[in-house]
Design goal:
Mean pLDDT of chain A: 88
Strand order of the largest sheet of chain A: 11-14-17-10-18
Structural class of chain A: alpha/beta
Number of helices of chain B: 16
Shape of chain B: elongated
Shape of chain A: elongated
Oligomer: heterodimer
Mean pLDDT of chain B: 86
Low-confidence stretches of chain B: 1-6, 303-313
Number of strands of chain B: 12
Number of helices of chain A: 23
Strand content of chain A: 15-25%
Helix content of chain A: 25-40%
Distance between the termini of chain B: 54 Å
Radius of gyration of chain A: 28 Å
Number of strands of chain A: 18
Chain lengths: 504, 378
């Protein structure tokens, strides 16, 4: 009269094991669900009953109680439908008890008994201990990436029951689709913009955050969209993390394989802070910073974002994860991304230099005041872009293709990895002296800049990290030289004009 | 027109100017009346310049009291056209304001050459630098710098003139009431101008400003000036109102040439095309002033020797540089350029150019601000 079925629900981007306990007893016919279900879980009663009847399976005309253990944790989503249906069948002795032994179930039921995919399958499967995991056939590829041969795909409740009774085989795991060969935008389309291309390459090699300032049409977006194409492909661990996060947010198209390219997220400037950093009332959905994990977060029209939204970025930029806390619980979501921001230099967008448009100093100042100095400080690279020369646009020589740049980036990352960190952007400040020594000329240059007040103490660390990345890119072995430091200073030069209140 | 501005007349003059009429209307209201008499005539409905009683409703006792209080709070003096304390430099102008409100000492205008320096509020580094230099050197040479005391070129010229301790004090003619600077920086600039020279306005303290007042104010600057100098003006900039007012008066207009690519210089360069005299520095302005004085019999013009500058030799510093650094310097010019421009012009790679620029900046041969590079003047 009692059946215990293993399943899981989603919490942030992690799965949590849930045991669905079904009890069928004498009494007036009723179906109750207890154990902190949310609305979607409570509505499962109607779906489960209809699905059983549609699949020509008997519904017990007795009192059915479902408890979702552990009872103190909130359960969300429709992923427990299948486990409840199988539990009812087992508790009503329609299925013999041994058939469900060591099998876990995931999936949403339709009224016709069909099985539908649920968000976060990868995380849910990872949380299960059973030797066999039944999943909707659309999620089989994703589940296999995590659970391998334990996965049992099925397309309907009738399939599941038939296979459990041994009357028909489980469906085959559909072949893993070849990684999508979608054409990535290539750097060879970018004409001119020598400094912009260089900054992009340095950003990719060192994982440095990049701020692009320039008038409309200067190619800010064009450059930024080409960053994922020169970043190294995801490692296996990163790919699984990305898969879990995207699946939990419900945005991986079902049937697609494991991601190999870094994700690219470009939210609109009216995005709210919850949408950007994640959260929500019950589900604690990952935000854009987590969806961009191991990839690129591109914020176009940086100056148009609400100041509070931008300042919410400070913690993830510093700690590479976002801690979301609510009264009912909290999660830590991964958020390690390269931030690329693009903005106009002034409200009208046209004036790269004072006097070249009608915006006065006060108007520029008001425009830039939306960006807090602590946020701007987190950009290692900040460059001004101008509109490309007509000659560059029309002359037939295409720029260097992404593949060549990506090869240099990969080599630089290998050099950086020898220091024990993933990339130079993650080097802690106190380790710089030991890991990235300066030669005397470079030290003298930095000292001059510090004494002149054109470089801050915080800026010093950023410049040293970037200089090390430039040295890695150029194959310089040994201490960082004056040339690398000079270039690093220039690739951050715009920063001072944004932070200081006025040009005069 | 009335003969004197006694203490008791000042609030009436301020109240009349607060009625909101144009400068021409105010002149008609005070034509043949002392301020107190004009006020009483309007209030009684028998002023010939107010036949339809438009101002009668506004000419009430509370308005007079408000004007009196605002005047006392700011401490401005009141000059009524025709009174003894009205600046003689302005009195003969056909469009002279009927009433002027003044902080500081308006007599600094007398017995000195006066140059009106105007230009855009959205000025370039170049324009600001030129305005500051010319303002400073003119003041040092004993020329009164007259400006609109707005942001940009006006502020640069004023602060240049204020930086000189022994010279002619500057004068600001503002388009807003004397108690309404737009920001803290302007408040400070106005206070310094009033403390050193004078700050004039057609609007009484406490009155409501309006956009059109700024354009109308420009005629006062043109009327005060022996010469009008446009440092930098956009194609349809407000400075061109001052130019038009100067031309109506036959006052010479000078302009500082700017880059033909710079929108901030589009208006001033157009003046040059139309035949305005080009000037590079205060010395050129003084020459033009001497020329105008000979032609039109103005006050004596101070000598220009005080503006001579020492020529700094760049030769030795340049020779000490490596050839490739010199090549990068060749790619620099006096117009600000981005790193990208310099890379393109010089043909060197980003690392080389960045290193060369650091060397040049260290030797004082290049100037950088916010990612823009240019050659230092001289």
């Amino acid at each position: 009269m009692l059946a215990l079925i293993e399943s899981a629900t989603l919490h942030g981007v992690d799965g949590r094991q849930v045991v669905v306990e079904v009890h069928v007893s004498q009494g007036l016919p009723a179906f109750t669900v207890v154990g902190l279900p949310d609305a979607a879980v409570r509505e499962a009663r109607d779906r489960v009953r209809a699905a059983l009847l549609s699949s020509d399976l008997p519904w017990p005309m007795r009192r059915v109680t479902v408890n979702l253990a552990p009872s103190g944790v909130r359960k969300t989503g429709a992923g427990l439908d299948l486990a409840m249906a199988v539990g009812v069948l087992a508790a009503a002795d329609v299925l013999a008890a041994p058939t469900t032994e060591g099998v876990a179930f995931l999936g949403e039921l339709g009224l016709d008994g069909s099985l539908r995919p649920v968000p976060g399958t990868a995380s849910l499967v990872a949380a299960l201990h059973a030797t066999q995991v039944v999943v909707p056939i659309e999620s089989a590829g994703e589940a296999t990436a995590v659970a391998g041969t334990r996965v049992r795909p099925a397309s309907s409740l009738a399939d599941v029951v038939g296979a459990l009774r041994g009357r028909r085989p489980w469906s085959d795991v559909p072949p893993r689709p070849t990684p999508s060969n979608a054409v990535m935008p290539d750097l060879c389309d970018v004409r001119g913009q020598t400094v912009g291309r260089r900054a992009l390459e340095v950003a990719a090699a060192g994982g440095h955050h990049l701020l692009l300032v320039g008038p409309p049409g200067s190619g800010k977006t064009m450059l930024a969209t080409r960053l994922p194409g020169i970043l190294p492909p995801l490692t296996e661990a990163e790919a699984l993390e990305v898969l879990r996060i995207h699946s939990a947010a419900g945005i991986t198209p079902p049937g697609e394989g494991i991601p190999t390219r870094p994700p690219w997220r470009a939210p609109h400037h009216r995005t709210t802070d919850v949408a950007l950093v994640g959260g929500g009332s019950a589900w604690l959905r990952p935000g854009e910073v987590s969806l961009a994990h191991a990839g690129v977060l591109f914020l176009d029209e940086f100056g148009e974002f609400a100041p509070a939204v931008l300042d919410a970025l400070r913690q993830p930029l510093e700690e590479q994860l976002i801690r979301i806390r609510r009264a009912r619980g909290g999660v830590d979501l991964p958020a390690r991304f390269v931030l690329v921001a693009a903005m106009n230099p002034c409200p009208c967008g046209d004036g790269s230099l004072p006097g070249s448009c009608r915006c006065t100093d006060a108007m520029r100042h008001r425009y830039l005041r939306r960006l807090s100095a602590p946020l701007l400080d987190r950009f290692d690279l900040a460059i001004a872009l101008g509109r490309p020369e007509v000659g560059d646009l029309l002359a037939g020589t295409p720029g260097e293709p992404s593949s060549v740049v990506a090869a240099r980036v990969a080599a630089a990352r290998i050099a950086a990895a020898s220091r024990g960190y993933r990339c130079n952007g993650e080097l802690p400040g106190q380790a710089l002296d030991e890991l990235c020594p300066l030669d005397p000329d470079a030290a003298a240059l930095l000292e001059r800049r510090l004494r002149a007040g054109t470089l801050s103490a915080r800026g010093l660390h950023r410049v040293r990290r970037v200089a090390q990345t430039i040295a890695d890119l150029d194959g310089v072995v040994g201490p960082v030289g004056e040339r690398q430091v000079a270039e690093a200073l220039q690739l951050r030069a715009v920063h001072s004009s944004l932070v200081s209140s006025t040009w005069r | 027109m009335s003969a004197s501005t006694s203490e008791s007349n000042a609030p009436h003059a301020a109240a009349l100017a607060s009625l909101g009429g144009s400068p021409a209307t105010l002149r008609r209201l005070l034509d043949g009346y002392a301020p107190r008499a004009a006020w009483q005539a309007i209030a009684a409905g028998r002023h010939p310049a107010d036949p339809d009683g438009r101002y009668r409703a506004k000419a009430a006792a509370p308005a007079l009291e408000a004007a009196r209080a605002a005047l006392a709070k700011v401490g401005a003096s009141v000059c009524v056209l025709g009174a003894d304390n009205y600046p003689p430099a302005l009195a003969s102008d056909p469009e002279a304001p009927a009433v002027l409100f003044c902080l500081g000492d308006p007599t600094v205008l007398e017995g000195r050459a006066r140059v009106c320096v105007v230009g855009t509020r959205a000025a370039s580094h170049y324009g600001l630098r030129v305005a500051t230099d010319i303002g400073r050197d003119l003041a040092a040479a004993g020329v009164v710098v007259v400006t609109g005391a707005a942001r940009g070129i006006d502020a640069a010229a004023l602060s240049g003139a204020l930086a000189v301790s022994t010279g002619a004090p500057p004068v600001g003619v503002v388009g807003a009431p004397l108690d309404t600077p737009t920001c803290a920086a302007q408040r400070e600039l106005w206070a310094n101008t009033a403390a050193s020279g004078a700050l004039l306005s057609e609007l009484p303290p406490g009155a409501r400003g309006a956009r059109w007042r700024f354009a109308v104010r420009n005629r006062v600057m043109a009327a005060l000036a022996h010469i009008v100098l446009v440092v930098e003006s956009h194609a349809h900039g407000g400075s061109l109102y001052t130019v038009a007012a100067a031309r109506r008066r036959g006052t010479a207009v000078l302009a500082v040439p700017g880059s033909v690519h710079s929108p901030a210089s589009a208006g001033s360069n157009q003046l040059l095309v139309e035949g305005a005299r080009a000037v590079r520095n205060a010395e050129d302005v003084l020459h033009a002033l001497a020329h105008a004085a000979r032609e039109r019999g103005y006050v004596e013009v101070p000598g220009s020797d005080s503006t001579a500058k020492a020529c700094t030799g760049r030769g030795p510093a340049l020779k000490a540089l490596a050839p490739w650094v010199r090549q990068v310097r060749m790619a620099l010019c006096h117009d600000p350029a981005t790193l990208d421009d310099i890379v393109r012009r010089s043909g060197h790679n980003v690392t080389d150019v960045a290193t060369a620029l650091e060397h040049l900046a260290d030797a004082g041969l290049a100037v950088e601000r916010g990612g823009w590079w240019w050659l230092p003047p001289g």
